[in-house]
Amino acid sequence: MTLRVAIIGAGKWSEHHMAAWRAQPDVTVDWVVRSTEEGAREKADRWGVARWSTDYKAVLAREDVDIVDILLPHDLHAEATCLAVAHGKHVVLQKPIAPTLQEARRIADAGRLHNRKIMIAESWIYSTMVQKARAAIAGKQIGEPFLIRSVMDLEVKDYFAGLHWRFSLGRMGGGALMDSGTHAVSVCRYLMGEVREVTALKSCHAFPEIAPMEDTFLLLLRFESGSSGLIAVTWVAQRERPRTEFAILGTQGTIEFDTHARQFFITRGQQRCEQFELQASRGYAEQFAHFLECLRENREPITSPEDQIGCLRVILAAYRAAATGHLVQVKDVEG
């Protein structure tokens, strides 16, 4: 059985998704939706997709669509996802799940109500690097992990050009942490477990157009296990390439990798004892393969709405900590 996909919001990031869908057997992308006729037609012609539209609600209502891949502004995630599942569609929803817990819960509730699968497209979880790190931790290759560090040095000004919604706090829900740092929060929880408490600093140094959102965020985490974490993310890094680095320190060794690079290291006894050249993958094709497997086997995706509500709760706790200057318990974040 061939599953028919509609890509809703075929902007810049949809290029990665289109390539990943084409890597899946028994899947066709039949619809492209963009906000303008010119943009929708151009993307459909370039991709070789027969049908395009500017009306995503009309496409969601069609009976010849099985899966919708939603890459809309954050404030439209809940509305579009709830409508899609009400029309019987399974949904892949680009991260972050939503700007607020209320909207995120609406998404989770709608999936259960209509018995449809929803996967948040948090691709880094499915990447070769993160999957190898999880296996190494589970295999006790570094003993007990006690510290994880994530550094995200990005430059996004060119990417944001012309995307007016990305300059609106109301539509984004937050800046560097909400939009990019959600990757790091997801990976940290996946590798280290649930987060108990956070403290944080946020600032806007070189991207005043997005104020009051932040271009730089520092987040300290304490996990339920007692281990610690540090996430540093900036949107205004001046480097030769993006850096998305992780280090996991354990009682017997250290894991190091960069999701934008090919090398994965394990160090023990102060010597680099294992080094892998992995095919660079940020998990786009792997996450769709996982989603299709979940449809076949009727099980929940790793990055389900419930899982990503946990990530959103950490992010909202971090914003509260940055605003108050206090340590915030993640369990206390309800709004």
Question: How would you describe this protein?
Answer:
This protein is of the alpha/beta class and 335 residues long. The protein has two domains: 3-122, NAD(P)-binding Rossmann-like Domain (Rossmann fold), CATH 3.40.50.720; 124-284 and 313-332, Dihydrodipicolinate Reductase, domain 2 (2-Layer Sandwich), CATH 3.30.360.10. It is built from eleven helices and 15 strands. The strands form two sheets. It has a nine-stranded mixed beta sheet. Helix 4 (77-86) packs parallel to helix 5 (101-114) and helix 5 runs antiparallel to helix 11 (305-324). The chain is globular, with a radius of gyration of 20 Å.
Topology:
Layout lengths: L2 E6 L5 H9 L4 E7 L3 H11 L3 E3 L2 H5 L6 E4 L6 H10 L3 E5 L6 H14 L3 E4 L6 H11 L6 E9 L3 H4 L8 H4 L3 H17 L2 E9 L12 E8 L4 E7 L8 E8 L3 E5 L4 E6 L2 E7 L6 H14 L7 H20 L3 E2 L6
Parallel strand pairs: 1-2, 1-4, 2-3, 4-5, 5-6, 7-10
Antiparallel strand pairs: 7-11, 8-9, 8-15, 9-10, 11-12, 12-13, 13-14
Average residue-wise pLDDT: 95
- Could you say which overall geometry the principal axes of the C-alpha atoms support? globular
Radius of gyration: 20 Å
Helix proportion: 25-40%
Assembly classification: single chain
Number of helical elements: 11
- Beta-sheet strand percentage? 25-35%
CATH architecture of the largest domain: 2-Layer Sandwich
The fold-level CATH name of the largest domain is Dihydrodipicolinate Reductase, domain 2
- Which runs of at least 5 residues are low in confidence (pLDDT < 50)? none
Order of neighbouring strands in the sheet with most strands: 14-13-12-11-7-10-9-8-15
Secondary structure tally: strands:
15
Succession of helices and strands? EHEHEHEHEHEHEHHHEEEEEEEHHE
Largest sheet geometry: 9 strands, mixed
Fourth CATH level, the homologous superfamily of the largest domain: Dihydrodipicolinate Reductase, domain 2
Q: How many domain regions? A: 2
At the first level of CATH, the class of the largest domain is Alpha Beta
In whole angstroms, the N-to-C terminal distance is: 42 Å
Class by alpha and beta content: alpha/beta
